[in-house]
Specification:
812 residues; lipopolysaccharide transport protein A fold; mainly beta; 52-stranded antiparallel β-sheet; 52 strands
């Protein structure tokens, strides 16, 4: 915060000028006292005592004595002590005297410079205890103090002098004025009232060299210091001075003000304490360090060498920079303590402490005011400490303790930008070497970062990052967050999506200041609704909503299935996931496929493997490509590509399809019925659970025990409750073979119940190794009875076709 860094509180000049004020006061008191003593001595010498008559005091107008061109000299030993001259001395009947054009000189015991006082008229009472100097009263001391007023009253008994008319005074580089003044010689107090103004000008070299040893050397940086107030009080015995009634101290553009300004001096006449109370205000306009501070009170404490040690601001404190590229402000209802260090005869700020939930704001650099990427920062905590570079000009670091919060907002409202909030028990900030520019904010103890889009969309929602410790890295030029590095039980949350790991980094776009990517390492885990993911490393990209899982055999699972692959990408926006490299999916049961997998055991798991896979979660579609294989127990489907449709209860396969999905019952020679698996190959295949249909197309080849059916396509209909074939329909160049027989046709239907094949074609043909060949438009082949019936089809009697049979005759 530039408003306090390297600022010399002494720059306002009060600590330097205060001893001068006290010196002037002492001389004022001395001058008035000497004048009264000298005149009293002269008046009492050789005169009889005169007392006022009882009753109301009233000066007589009866002249009883008149002396013109009075001149009196008084010696003290062999030295001249007093010289008194007056144009006229009138003595009245009541004993009082009136002197005209008085000039008095009082010489010291040593030295030739006298104290002087003159006035146009001087009145004394009968017992010479009260004096009134009027008309161009001028006092000049041997220490070069000059005082001017129109009227000065002095009481010898009380040693009180009053100036009832405007008074001005000047000594070397100190000058001032007031409407009235009162001096108490006994208590050595001076009171100035009404438009009080005191000015201290920079000392010349000669003045600095001739100043007494007890008076500190002035260093006003070539600028005069002026203090204005309604009233000023000086106590020489207590070494205290106070300006009240709305006091303002100004030096150039620097200002200190308050309802009162007061200070205390040490016995060596050095300032040890200065305080401004009541609407206290301080403005320092040092080049590169301009700032202002508001508070209920401001206190400054100095060491024995009159160097500022510490400062204390209390009540409604507000400090902010002026004319800085990057403005900073601190606000607290409590107190602010400042510690200073001495460098090159200057007191420079090294540490600031504030309590009671202070707020520190760091604005975007003014040079980037038009940059939509620029950001403002606000730091709040139970207590904040700021530290300055020991050899530099600006903040070095900041510490925020207790419920700390950092808010980062774009300087310009940008729908594409994000608002970032960082919360933790403690926050530590490191700044760049100059400019009060934040470099890192480190949050410890249940750290939490909330990234809130200024305009939420379907793709951009509020995101939360939590961890034990988190570091926010800032872009130097724009002062927006570049990245969050989270370690220790890190979690990232967006809507129903959660990413957790031991270490996590959130990266932001330098162009838009929006969240760009979140990288997670150290046992990262991903969760969205009932979907979960795990890998050695994960990365979430906010622009497309993808979670990318890499390393350590990434795995994703939900209540239906489990997926493993070398790489897994989850599109959290469009609800699509992609897996690559040794993809393995395990459905916990056939039921979890929605019936799409054509396997019989509904409670047993289903396995699918492939080179790559795509899952469309909302649509319930799974696409496996590259040597895809789905299996359960001994049943399987292999293809270049397998697609599961959960909602449609359908599986599709294409490219070199191989399957063993269902069984067929057959009657053995001994009359027993057995169940044999059915193997099939084709170019494409689909399974519809609703229709209990397996459809093969393209180079279909079905093996069923010793029987085989080939053709262009085949539809296999399964029994309702079992995965056993009910009937099969084949078309396009159908070939049915079994040991010793071969049937061909355009169309064929196999029924499992009677184990027969109906062949049709133009014509259908059956070749029997033992019985020969038969042809007909329609033929029925009984697979177990070794029979073939040719009936010509449903319209055989009207058909012009005929049955042609060729028999083979065995040789005896």
């Amino acid at each position: 915060m530039q408003e306090i860094r390297r600022r010399k509180v002494a720059g306002i000049g009060l600590r330097i000028a205060a001893p001068k004020f006290v010196r002037v006061l002492a001389l004022c008191l001395l001058a008035c006292g000497l004048a009264a003593v000298a005149i009293s001595y002269w008046r009492l010498r050789g005169h009889t005592e005169f007392r006022l008559r009882p009753g109301q005091a009233q000066l007589s107008t009866e002249v009883v004595g008149d002396i013109h061109n009075l001149e009196h000299r008084e010696m003290k030993g062999d030295r001249l002590w007093v010289v008194l001259t007056a144009d006229r001395d009138l003595t009245y009947s009541d004993g009082h005297h009136e002197l005209e054009n008085v000039h008095l000189e009082v010489y010291p015991d040593k030295g030739d410079q006298p104290d002087k006082i003159s006035s146009q008229r001087t009145l004394t009472n009968e017992d010479n205890t009260q004096f009134l100097f009027t008309g161009n009263v001028q006092i000049e001391t041997r220490d070069r103090l000059a005082v001017k007023a129109e009227a000065v009253e002095y009481d010898v008994k009380t040693e009180v002098g009053n100036v009832t008319t405007p008074v001005s005074f000047e000594r070397e580089n100190v000058s001032g004025r007031a409407d009235t003044a009162s001096l108490d010689g006994k208590s050595k107090k001076l009171n100035l009232k009404g438009n009080v103004e005191i000015t201290v000008k920079p000392e010349t070299d000669a003045q600095r060299q001739s100043a007494p040893a007890g008076v500190p050397k002035m260093n006003l940086r070539g600028l005069p210091l002026t203090v204005k107030s309604a009233q000023a009080d000086f106590d020489q015995n207590q070494l205290q001075l106070s300006f009240s009634g709305g006091a303002v101290a100004e030096q150039g553009r620097d200002v200190m003000s308050g309802e009162t300004l007061s200070g205390s001096l040490s016995e060596q006449k050095r300032v040890k304490y200065v305080v401004a109370r009541g609407s206290a205000y301080l403005r320092s306009m040092n080049e590169g360090h301009s700032a202002e501070v508001f508070s209920d009170s401001l206190e400054f404490f100095f060491d024995e060498n009159q160097k500022l040690e510490r400062s204390h601001a209390a009540g409604n404190v507000r400090a902010k920079t002026i004319d800085a590229d990057s403005d900073a402000q601190l606000v607290t209802q409590g107190v602010v303590d400042l510690d200073f260090a001495v460098q090159d005869e200057r007191s420079v700020l090294k540490e600031m402490r504030a309590g009671e939930r202070p707020v520190v704001t760091l604005s975007a650099p003014k040079s980037k005011a038009a940059d939509p990427r620029a950001a403002n920062k606000r730091l709040t905590a139970d207590g904040i400490r700021l530290y300055w570079h020991a050899a530099g000009r600006d903040l070095e670091r900041a510490e925020a303790d207790g419920n700390a919060e950092l808010l980062v907002e774009p300087a310009q409202a940008n729908p594409a930008a994000d608002r970032k909030t960082l919360n933790a028990a403690l926050i530590r900030c490191q700044f760049y070497e100059a400019g009060n520019l934040a470099q890192t904010f480190t949050a410890s103890g249940n750290a939490k970062a909330v990234v809130e889009p200024l305009q939420q969309t379907e793709k951009r929602a509020t995101r939360t990052l939590t961890s034990q410790e988190m570091v926010a890295q800032f872009v130097r030029e724009t002062q927006d967050v570049e990245r969050f590095d989270a370690t220790g039980d890190a979690h990232f949350q967006e809507r129903e999506r959660t990413l957790a790991s031991q270490k996590m980094t959130a990266l932001f776009s330098r162009d838009t200041a929006a969240l760009e990517r979140v990288d997670a390492t150290g046992d990262p885990k991903y969760k969205e609704q009932d979907r979960n993911g795990q890998a050695a490393a994960m990365s979430y990209t906010a622009g497309d909503g993808f979670v990318r899982m890499r390393g350590g055999e990434p795995v994703v699972w939900d209540s239906r299935a489990r997926l493993k692959a070398a790489e897994i990408d989850a599109d959290t926006i469009d609800k699509v996931s992609n897996a690559r490299g040794k993809v393995q999916t395990t459905y916990y049961s056939q039921e979890q496929t929605g019936g799409a997998a054509p396997f019989k055991n509904v409670k047993s798991p289903v396995f699918i493997a492939s080179a790559a896979a795509e899952f469309q979660h909302d649509a319930g579609v799974g696409i496996y490509t590259g040597n895809a294989r789905a299996w359960q127990d001994d049943n399987f489907v292999k293809a270049d590509r397998i697609v599961l449709y959960h909602e449609r209860k359908r599986m599709e396969a294409e490219g070199s399809v191989q399957s063993a999905l269902y069984n067929a019952r057959r009657k053995e020679a001994n009359g027993t019925r057995t169940v044999v698996p059915v193997f099939a190959t084709s170019r494409t295949m689909f399974y519809s659970d609703s229709d209990r249909l397996v459809h093969y197309e393209g180079d279909v080849d079905i093996h069923q025990g010793t029987e085989r059916i080939t053709g262009g396509l085949a539809d296999v209909y399964l029994l309702k409750d079992t995965y056993e074939v009910e009937h099969t329909v084949a078309e396009r160049n159908v070939v049915v073979t079994q040991p010793g027989r071969r049937g061909t046709g355009d169309w064929a239907q196999y029924t499992a119940e009677d184990e027969k094949v109906v062949l049709t074609g133009g014509p259908a043909r059956v070749e029997d190794a033992e019985k020969g060949t038969s042809e007909s438009r329609r033929m029925i082949v009984y697979l177990r009875d070794n029979r073939v019936i040719s009936d010509g089809g449903e319209n055989a009697q009207q058909s012009t076709g005929r049955v042609h049979t060729t028999h083979k005759i065995r040789k005896p």
